[in-house]
Specification:
With about 375 residues, the protein is mostly helical. About 70% of the residues lie in helices and about 0% in strands. A two-stranded antiparallel ribbon has the order 1-2.
Length: about 375
């Protein structure tokens, strides 16, 4: 979540600088202060309210984008061929694998998604909400994603000085009148604020429930999150690329999530946290090993973990990293499992005790004489449900 917060603030300051020419630091500081105040007072419920604002801002930006393309964007056909954006490429084929793995595993790490999942009233409501959101997000991402092509063919990207491709959409909107750009800035700040408060609320919830097991006062946890915002701002202002920030978190999640998901299945009850930790760290180590062998340099292998050269490398290094992360994580996790079971078996034999590491937990063991459709009331009466 630290990286997500960094990416959010980094994007805000880049957009403010691009659209207005002003320093984005004041906007970043104001956003951090405002979100900290109202999330501290209102908690996670406020995040649900700002989600509605976020949805309205996205729709507004899409409408403005459509107007911009229709009224202000002039495609120079002479730029289409030299851009090579419509031609097949090695990276294009690699992304067919990289993007699903990166996005799917990364979404497991977003606590805001889990909080909304558990906050749904019923499973039916959850399925309906996810289905509607998936369709809407697909349409919005298609529109926003195509703006990169249009920006390149309209000659507004990369620009002078060259701008990051992640803000190509806003480079198109920059062609609108100044008063419209001012409205866009307000919408961008509102959108960023709505996303940032969700990250803050998720971090407070995760720290309080998962890290401290609700033994530490909520205000102490919130104070810790406030202190964490200072390094977030510093890193956001110095981060060279939003995409690189997300790619780092993608590699971490690709290493950890596959071994984590095994433990979520009842049939793999013998899979424990030790395997998840070793597998996750092993996946990251496997990226380093792959990079060292591929480049013939330990330094470049270490840089591959951070994807210092970005996504657009004209080789197989990034693709190999996203293959090495989940595969290596699973291999290390299985190795950790055998190591743990071997140690427990030898220890049990040494103490002349029964080996119980592969025994199913009580919750998965059928109770003799008790049907699944019955329960026992405190008074001892059997009732069928």
């Amino acid at each position: 979540m630290f990286l997500y917060m960094v990416a959010e603030l980094s994007a805000l300051q880049q957009i403010v600088n691009s659209l207005s020419g002003l320093d984005g630091l004041p906007a970043v500081i104001v956003e951090c202060a405002v979100t900290t105040i109202y999330t501290s007072l209102g908690g996670f419920r406020v995040s649900f309210v700002t989600d509605n604002i976020q949805g309205a801002m996205v729709v507004g930006l899409v409408i403005l984008g459509v107007i911009t393309v229709g009224a202000k964007t002039h495609i120079d056909r002479n730029l289409i061929g030299p851009s090579h954006l419509l031609e097949p490429s090695l990276l294009g084929w690699q992304l067919i694998y990289i993007l699903p793995v990166a996005i799917l595993t990364n979404d497991f790490f977003i606590s805001g998604f889990w909080m909304r999942t558990f906050a749904s009233k019923t499973d039916k409501d959850l399925r309906i909400g996810v289905s509607i959101a998936s369709v809407v997000v697909l349409m919005i991402l298609t529109l926003i994603g195509s703006s990169g092509l249009l920006a390149a063919w309209a000659g507004v990207w990369p620009g002078d000085p060259p701008q990051a491709g992640s803000i190509a959409f806003f480079l198109l909107l920059e062609q609108l009148p100044a008063w419209v750009v001012g409205i866009i800035l307000i919408m961008v700040v509102s959108l960023s604020t709505a996303a940032f408060d969700s990250l803050q609320s998720a971090m407070v919830s995760t720290a309080s429930n998962d890290l401290f097991r609700n033994r530490l006062g909520i205000w102490w946890v919130r104070a810790g999150v406030v202190l964490l915002i200072f390094p977030v701002v510093v890193v956001a202002l110095r981060s060279p690329s939003i995409l690189q920030i997300f790619l780092i978190s993608d590699l971490v999640s690709a290493s950890v999530v596959p071994v984590l998901c095994i433990g979520l299945l009842d049939r793999f009850y013998w899979w424990q946290g030790f395997e998840v930790v070793v597998g996750g760290l092993g996946g990251i180590l496997t990226i380093f090993i792959f990079g060292t062998i591929y480049f013939g340099s330990a330094l470049k292998g270490a840089k591959l973990i951070l994807l210092k050269d970005g996504l657009y490398a004209e080789d197989w290094s990034v693709f190999g990293a996203f293959v090495a992360a989940p595969v290596g994580g699973l291999v290390w996790g299985i190795g950790a499992l055998f190591a743990r079971l071997s140690f427990q078996y030898i220890y049990a034999k040494f103490r002349h005790e029964r080996f119980t590491a592969l025994d199913p937990p009580v919750s998965l063991t059928p109770r003799q004489g008790v049907d699944d459709a019955t329960f026992v009331e405190p008074q001892g009466n059997w009732k069928s449900v």
